């Protein structure tokens, strides 16, 4: 019933910008943390940024000062503004959400989107 759908990925030159979006849909009662992860081929999935329901944020050291995570609670949507992109940012970016539904509101579950490709060229 719950799904996360990412959008906004694409090809961009080094130094450029992209804005990723992730919309959560379904019988959602409450969303706590929302996050963005990245995964390059053959590498482990890594946390990029996380934002709490109240708007507190944390970032991986590699993206501090360049990326900004935000959310629209009314739309159940999280964003990742990516500036000053580098070739090493190339990866599939996945949206993640910790949420509970109306049907099972006594427990939080973790959900993943399908991912969106970001490619940064030199």
SSE map:
Blueprint: E1 3-7, E2 10-13, E3 18-25, E4 28-39, E5 46-51, E6 57-59, E7 67-72, E8 77-82, E9 91-101, E10 109-112, E11 116-121
Parallel strand pairs: 2-11
Antiparallel strand pairs: 1-3, 3-8, 4-5, 4-9, 5-6, 7-8, 9-10, 9-11
Keywords:
122 residues, seven-stranded mixed β-sheet, 58% strand
Q: What class, by secondary structure content?
A: mainly beta
Helix count, per DSSP?
Answer: 0
Query: Order of helices and strands, N to C?
Result: EEEEEEEEEEE
> What fraction, in percent, of the residue positions are helical?
under 10%
Biggest β-sheet: count, sense, barrel? 7 strands, mixed
Strand content: over 45%
Q: List low-confidence stretches.
A: none
What Rg, in angstroms, do the CA atoms define? 14 Å
Q: What is the residue-averaged pLDDT?
A: 96
How would you describe the shape? elongated
Number of strands: 11
Please give the oligomerization state of what you see: single chain
- The end-to-end span amounts to 41 Å
């Amino acid at each position: 019933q719950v799904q996360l759908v990412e959008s906004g990925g694409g090809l961009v030159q080094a130094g450029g910008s992209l804005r990723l979006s992730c919309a959560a849909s379904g019988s959602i009662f409450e969303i706590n943390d929302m996050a963005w992860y990245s995964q390059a081929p053959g590498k482990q999935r890594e946390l990029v940024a996380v934002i709490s329901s109240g708007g507190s944020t944390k970032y991986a050291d590699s993206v501090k000062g360049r990326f900004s995570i935000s959310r629209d609670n009314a739309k159940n949507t999280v964003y990742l503004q990516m500036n000053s992109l580098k070739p090493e940012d190339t990866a599939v970016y996945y949206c993640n959400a910790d949420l509970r539904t109306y049907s099972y509101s006594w427990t939080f579950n973790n959900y993943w989107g399908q991912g969106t490709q970001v490619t940064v060229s030199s």
